[in-house]
Amino acid sequence: MEKSVGEIVEAVKVCIDEIGLNDAEFLGEQDNEEMDTIIRSKIGEALRFVNGNADWALLEPDTVLTEATVGSDLVGRVSLPDNYLRVCYARFRSWPLYLSDPIYWDDREYATLADPYATGTWERPKLAMVLHPSRTLELYKARDTQDTAEVGIVTDQDGADNITIGARLYPALIYYISGLTLLTYRDQHADSLFNQAMTLMGISTQINN
What we know:
- By secondary structure, the protein is an alpha+beta fold.
- Helix content is 33%, strand content 21%.
- Helix 3 (32-53) crosses helix 4 and helix 4 runs antiparallel to helix 5.
- It starts with a strand and ends in a 9-residue tail after the last helix.
């Protein structure tokens, strides 16, 4: 779903009002324009946190990439944009499933992808991420050189006039921005808003003693 920055600012103010802070001393002292500025400044940070940490099942891509190069080794390579944040899904058309958790270049498991017996195949695929010569997603492997790829990602949208976020994560975004706003004012209610956001992101907030 797409929301304008103005819509997000208003939703955050409603969220703060709804938790019973209408008459809070700090709200009475603050200029509306000042609060709007603070809320706007927190949107990028909150969006990165929510999209970067939410349960994979709640994510929706804001960008879909379909241009992949497939070499003679049948490894697909998809160049990622500079504002890349997280993979939502990746697959070749021949794959029986979607993947979302890449093996990183600095992980010991990455070396096994060069082993013809341990590497991925189109029947049991694997996903990897490298940084050189640029940030690239590697798909192991295509069924043939004509196989087509699709990669859905979320990007860093800081500074954009309109924000795209999964419908199921939008409430979490509003709670998290609200928490950051109250944290700026050093209000003790910020923690409860952060906890609510984490719950909506599919992250347990239970503290194990």
